Amino acid sequence: MFSKTLTLNCNGNAILNFQGDMQNNNSLGIWKTEKDTLIIFFDSLKNQTNKFKGEMKFVIKRNKLEYMPFPKSRYYELVEYAKRTKNDTLKIPSYRKLNKLTNQVLKNFQGKTGKQYFKKIEYIECK
To answer: What are the Cα distances from residue 87, in Å, to 61, 73, 75, 106?
Structure first.
């Protein structure tokens, strides 16, 4: 039903294509790597039709790009915010559970969820 395709060009440009529910959008951005991390920046001022905005980070593992784990510093900020507001209805799950929830897709027909990632399907050497 939904699909995302990421194309990284040798000149530093990135295209993230999203298709689903009668949508077909190409978000244009620039990419760079830092150690085992791929960083893509989508400039919403240059390309106002971008579905994706800001910065996306992925961990490079073998032939996969996995979404970055939820930062612990942001988790602690979220917990502190919940304590300050004294909101009884706001329940923050554990860091492990929150991290797991942020990287999963919807349940499939068997009722199972899986991790979201991009799989490398083609390799082109840049010169």
So the answer is: 39, 21, 17, 28
What's the predicted TM-score (pTM) here?
0.68
C-alpha to C-alpha distances, 81 to 59, 73, 95, nearest whole angstrom: 28, 12, 15
Instruction: State yes or no: pLDDT of 30 exceeds 90.
Output: yes
* The pair of three-digit structure tokens given for residue 16, joined into one six-digit string: 């993230």
**Residue carrying the six token digits 């530093």:** 12
| Each residue's pLDDT tens digit, 52-94 | 888 888 888 888 888 887 788 888 888 888 888 776 677 788 8
User: How far is the C-alpha of 117 from the C-alpha of 113, rounded, in Å?
Assistant: 13
Confidence band for 41, pLDDT divided at 50, 70 and 90: very high
Sheet with 54-61, strands from edge to edge, namely 3-8, 13-20, 23-34, 37-42, 54-61, 64-67, 117-119
> Using the 8-state DSSP alphabet, how is residue 104 labeled?
B
Break the chain down into helix, strand, coil percent, rounded to 5.
15, 40, 45
Cross-strand bridge partners of residue 56: 40
